[in-house]
Specification:
By secondary structure, this protein is α/β, with parallel strands linked by helices. It contains 32 helices and 33 strands. Bound molecules: ligand MGD (2 copies), iron/sulfur cluster and molybdenum atom (MO).
C-alpha cells in the first residue's frame, strides 16, 4: 500500500548553486528554527551550541576548533538542534486519536513534524493503538520477553550514533551481561568499510588527522563526500587550507556547491564578498570509479619515480613503516588505462593533472564519506587510498593522513565504547574482568544479518536505542516484514518515526532526553560525553527543562532495563550508574584504553584528544607495519539502457528525516521523489526532462524492486550515474547487495532502469 508520500507535483528546478553558505544559509536556519520554537528559545539554543559549557551539536561529527566563535555552528547544525528543541509535543491524546495503521500511512516528514515524544507508550498484541504504560510496566514487558527467549542471541540491540558514550558503554555492557554480542549499529550502514580497510592496513579503524593537520596540508582530496550539506563547518577548515597555500581536489559524480566556492557566514568577507574558491580541480567521476582512479594514480606515481628516482616516493617511510611494497607495486603497475577510463569516465589528462599535484605535494590528506563506503568494492577502494598515502609517506606526520569524515555526532565514540558486534577479544576480556562475568565471544549480528535473522525467525526481540532502523536499512519491504515478525520491538527515541509504526506484535516507545535537555539525577545535574570525527572527547550539557516531566535519560533507561532483566544484586551496580554518571566514566577509564582519568579530564573544560597509535609510529596490524595491499580491479557496470543509482541526502534532511522538500544547493524545490540524470543519458533513454518514471531495481534474485512515481530532473551528474534521495529509494537496495568484507548495504551503487509512467 502506498504511504502518504509528500507531494511531488510542485517540483521546481533552478540551476545548481555554485557556492555554499553565506547569508542565505543563516536565513534558512532561522526559518526552520522559528517554525519549531520561539525566538528566545532559538537564541538560547544557538548560543549554547558547540560551546565549552554548552551542548554538542547533534548533527554531524565535525570537530570544534580550539578557539570557538560565538556562533560555532552551521545552517544545518542550527536546523538539527531546532528539530530536537521544538516545542511541539506528541501526547497520549495524539496516540488515542491516530491508530497505528493510520500513522503508518503518514510520510516520514509528517511523523517528525509532530514533535517530541512525551511518555512511554505500548501497543499490545492485536491492538490498533498505542496506549500509555508506566515505566515500571514497560521494563517488565521487556525483561519478561528477554528472559523467555531460548537464547540471548534471539535479541538484538541497535544503536544510532547520536547515543552518548556513557549510555553506549552501559548498553554494550548490558547486552554482553545478558549474553549476546548482537549490537548492530548505524556504522554498519555507514563507515564500516572505512573501519574494515583501515584496521587491516594501519591497525586502527579511525581517522588519523586533526583540524590543524587539515589546515597545514599541501593537498586535500575530498572524495565521495558532500561537505557543504553534510559537514558544513568542514568548509571553514578547507578555507584555512587554501589560505595557507594548500590545494583541494574534489572527486564526485556531482558538482556539489560547497566544493566549488564557500562564503563563510562568520566573516564579513563571506557576507559581502565572493567567498573562497574551494576545489582547485574537480574530477567528475562515474559512480564506483574511485578504485580504478586510485589504482591508476598509484601506477603513475611508481612510473614518475622510475623517471626521476628519489623524487616521488618516500623511501625512508616505506622501508621503516610499511610491509608489502614489492607485491603491491608489481600488482598496481598492471593497471590498464582503457579499463580506468571506462570505469571513471574521466579524461587521461585529468588523472595526469592530479598525479602532478600529488607529486608536487609533500603533505597529503584524503577525506571521504559515503560515496566510497557504500559500494561493493568500498573496502578495496579505501585500501587503495591508503596505498597512495603510504607511497608518499603521508601518514603520521603533521599535515598528512586519512580522514574518513564521520556522520553522526557520536558514532565514533559508540564504537570506542564497545558498540560493535565483532569487538576484539581484548575488549571482552577487559570488560569481563572489570565486572566479574564472562562475556560471550560469538560474533553478533550486524544490521544486515540482524534483518536476515528477524526475517527468518531466528531473532524476535529488537531494541533500538536512537535512530530509525526500519528506514535506514536497505530493502525497505524486507526490513519492514522482518520487524513485523518480531514478538517485541522497543524504540528508545526522542521523536516519532517510521520505526514506531512498523512494529512487532508488542511494541514499546520509550521517550528520552535529547542533547539540549537538562539531565538531573539523584546526585545532581549530569553531563555526558561524545567523541568527534577527529577523536576529541568532550562533555555535553543540556540546558532546557526536559521536553516532558516523564522522560528518562538513556543512561537511566538502560540501567533500569538491565536491573529488571538481570535481577538485583549482581556484580554490576546499575542503580549507582543511574544516579551518578561519573561512576560510569570511572569504569570506562578502567576498560577502554586512552580514557585514564576520564572524568576529571572531561569535567574540567574542552576535553582531550585520544592518541592515535599511527601518529606514534605504532601499527597494530599483523605485521606490526602499515600494510600495502593488492586489490583486484573492480567497477560498476550497468547493462545497455540502465543506470547506476546512488541514494544520497538532500540539503534539508537529517538521515531518514526530511525537514523540508527542498535541496537548495542542487536547485531542487518542493519535491523529494525526483531522480537526477545526465541530459545525454536522458536523450539516449528517450526520456523527457521532468517526466514521471518508476525506478526499477535490477538484481539477480528475481524480485522486482520498484520505487514509484519519481520525476526525472536533467542534472549535470556524470554519465551513467543517477542520483536520488534516501530513504525513499532504500526499497531498491537488495538486502544481499553489500560491500565485500564490511557487509555495508551498497546504497550508492544500484543498477536501475527508469520506466516511464503515463500521466
Ligand atoms: N545535513 C545533514 N548532515 C549530515 C547527515 C544528514 O543526513 N544531513 N548525515 C550524517 C551522516 S550519518 C553521514 S554518514 C554523513 C554523510 O555524508 P556524505 O557522504 O557527504 O553524504 P551523502 O549525501 O550520502 O553524499 C555522498 C556524496 O558522495 C558522492 N558519491 C556517490 N557515489 C560516489 C562514487 O562512487 N564516487 C565518488 N567519488 N563520489 C560518490 C555523492 O555525489 C555525494 O556528494 O553526513 C552526516 N551529516
Ligand atoms: N539508501 C541509503 N540508506 C542509508 C544511507 C544512505 O546514504 N543511503 N545512509 C546510512 C547511514 S550513513 C546511516 S548513519 C543510517 C542512519 O540511520 P539512523 O541513525 O538509524 O537514522 P536517523 O535518521 O539518524 O534516526 C533518527 C531518529 O533518531 C532518534 N533520535 C534523535 N536524537 C536522539 C537522541 O538523542 N536519543 C535517542 N534515543 N533518539 C534520538 C529520533 O527519534 C529520530 O527519529 O542510514 C543509512 N542508510
Ligand atoms: S558542521 Fe556538523 S557538528 Fe558542526 S554545526 Fe554543522 S552539523 Fe553541527
Ligand atoms: Mo552515517
Amino acid at each position: 500500500m502506498p504511504r502518504d508520500e509528500d507531494p511531488q507535483d510542485d517540483l521546481t528546478v533552478s540551476p545548481p548553486k555554485s557556492w555554499a553558505a553565506g547569508v542565505p544559509a543563516v536565513a534558512h536556519a532561522m526559518e526552520y528554527a522559528l517554525s519549531q520554537t520561539s525566538p528566545r528559545r532559538t537564541a538560547v539554543t544557538l548560543l549554547n551550541l558547540n560551546q565549552v559549557k554548552g551542548f554538542d551539536c547533534p548533527g554531524c561529527a565535525w570537530p570544534d576548533p580550539k578557539k570557538r566563535h560565538k556562533n560555532e555552528y552551521c545552517e544545518n547544525g542550527a536546523k538539527h538542534i531546532a528539530d530536537e528543541a521544538t516545542t511541539r509535543r506528541v501526547t497520549r491524546e495524539f496516540f488515542a486519536e491516530h491508530p497505528v495503521a493510520e500513522l503508518d500511512q503518514k510520510s516520514d516528514y509528517w511523523l517528525n513534524q509532530q514533535g517530541r515524544l512525551t511518555e512511554p507508550m505500548v501497543k499490545r498484541p492485536g491492538a490498533t493503538h498505542y496506549e500509555p504504560i508506566s515505566w515500571d510496566d514497560a521494563f517488565d514487558v521487556i525483561a519478561e520477553e528477554l528472559r523467555a527467549l531460548a537464547s540471548p542471541d534471539e535479541a538484538m540491540f541497535y544503536t544510532s550514533g547520536r547515543l552518548n558514550n556513557e549510555a553506549a558503554f552501559l548498553l554494550q555492557l548490558f547486552s554482553r551481561a545478558y549474553g549476546t554480542n548482537n549490537l548492530p549499529d548505524c556504522s554498519n550502514m555507514c563507515h564500516e568499510s572505512s573501519g574494515s580497510a583501515l584496521m587491516e592496513t594501519i591497525g586502527v579503524g579511525k581517522g588519523t588527522v586533526s583540524l590543524d593537520d587539515l589546515h597545514d596540508a599541501d593537498l586535500v582530496l575530498v572524495v565521495g563526500q558532500n561537505p557543504g550539506t553534510n559537514h558544513p563547518r568542514m568548509l571553514t577548515a578547507l578555507e584555512h587550507t587554501k589560505h595557507n597555500g594548500g590545494k583541494v581536489v574534489a572527486v564526485n559524480p556531482l558538482p556539489e556547491a560547497g566544493l566549488k566556492r564557500f562564503k563563510n557566514p562568520q566573516k564579513p568577507s563571506g557576507v559581502v564578498g565572493r567567498g573562497t574558491a574551494i576545489a582547485d580541480q574537480f574530477l567528475q567521476i562515474r559512480i564506483g570509479g574511485d578504485l580504478a582512479l586510485f589504482q591508476m594514480l598509484n601506477r603513475l606515481l611508481l612510473e614518475a619515480e622510475d623517471d626521476a628516482p628519489g623524487t616521488v616516493l618516500d623511501h625512508d617511510f616505506i622501508a621503516r613503516d610499511t610491509d608489502g611494497f614489492e607485491a603491491f607495486a608489481a600488482h598496481v603497475r598492471g593497471t590498464d588505462w582503457d579499463e580506468v577510463l571506462e570505469a571513471t569516465g574521466l579524461a587521461r589528462e585529468e588523472i595526469e593533472e592530479l598525479r602532478d599535484r600529488i607529486v608536487a605535494s609533500d603533505k597529503i590528506i584524503v577525506c571521504w564519506a559515503m560515496g566510497l563506503t557504500q559500494h561493493k568494492h568500498g573496502v578495496p577502494t579505501i585500501r587503495e587510498i591508503v596505498n597512495l598515502l603510504l607511497l608518499t609517506g603521508s601518514l603520521g606526520r603533521p599535515g598528512t593522513g586519512v580522514c574518513p569524515v564521520r556522520g553522526h555526532s557520536n558514532v565514533q565514540g559508540d564504537r570506542t565504547m564497545g558498540i560493535w558486534e565483532r569487538v576484539p577479544q581484548w575488549f571482552l576480556d577487559a570488560l569481563g574482568e572489570e565486572f566479574g562475568f564472562t562475556p560471550p565471544t560469538r560474533h553478533g549480528f550486524d544490521s544486515v544479518n540482524g534483518v536476515r535473522a528477524m526475517r527468518d525467525g531466528r531473532a524476535s526481540v529488537f531494541v533500538g536505542v536512537a535512530g530509525n532502523f526500519v528506514r535506514a536499512m536497505s530493502d525497505s519491504l524486507v526490513t519492514e516484514e522482518a520487524l513485523r515478525r518480531c514478538r517485541l520491538t522497543v524504540q528508545i527515541s526522542t521523536k516519532l518515526n517510521r520505526s514506531h509504526t512498523v512494529c512487532g506484535e508488542t511494541a514499546l516507545i520509550l521517550p528520552t532526553l535529547g542533547r539540549s535537555d537538562r539531565d538531573v539525577q539523584a546526585t545532581g545535574e549530569q553531563f555526558v560525553t561524545v567523541e568527534d570525527s577527529m577523536s576529541e572527547v568532550k562533555a555535553t550539557r543540556g540546558r532546557f527543562s526536559p521536553a516532558s516531566p516523564h522522560l528518562l535519560s538513556e543512561v537511566a533507561i538502560i540501567s533500569r532495563l538491565a536491573r529488571r532483566t538481570l535481577g538485583e544484586g549482581g556484580s554490576i551496580p546499575w542503580e549507582e550508574f543511574e544516579t551518578d554518571y561519573s561512576l560510569v566514566r570511572e569504569r570506562i577509564a578502567r576498560v577502554v584504553p586512552g580514557f585514564e582519568d576520564f572524568d576529571q579530564r572531561v569535567a574540567k573544560g574542552a576535553g582531550f584528544r585520544l592518541v592515535n597509535p599511527v601518529n606514534e609510529g605504532v601499527y597494530n596490524t599483523e605485521s606490526g607495519k602499515a600494510q600495502f595491499s593488492c586489490n583486484d580491479f573492480a567497477m560498476l557496470r550497468a547493462p545497455e539502457g540502465h543506470l547506476v543509482l546512488q541514494s544520497l541526502r538532500s540539503h534539508d534532511q537529517w538521515n531518514t528525516i526530511p525537514y523540508a522538500l527542498n535541496d537548495r544547493y542542487r536547485g531542487i524545490h518542493n519535491a523529494r521523489r525526483i531522480v537526477m540524470v545526465n541530459p545525454d543519458d536522458l536523450t539516449d533513454l528517450g526520456l523527457e526532462d521532468q517526466s514521471l518514471v518508476d525506478i526499477v531495481g535490477v538484481w539477480d534474485d528475481g524480485v522486482e524492486r520498484r520505487a514509484e512515481g519519481f520525476r526525472v530532473v536533467a542534472y549535470p551528474t556524470s554519465r551513467g550515474s543517477a542520483a536520488s534521495y534516501y530513504p525513499e529509494t532504500n526499497v531498491l537496495v537488495p538486502l544481499d547487495s553489500v560491500a565485500d568484507i564490511s557487509n555495508t548495504p551498497t546504497s550508492k551503487g544500484v543498477v536501475v532502469r527508469l520506466e516511464p509512467v503515463a500521466e
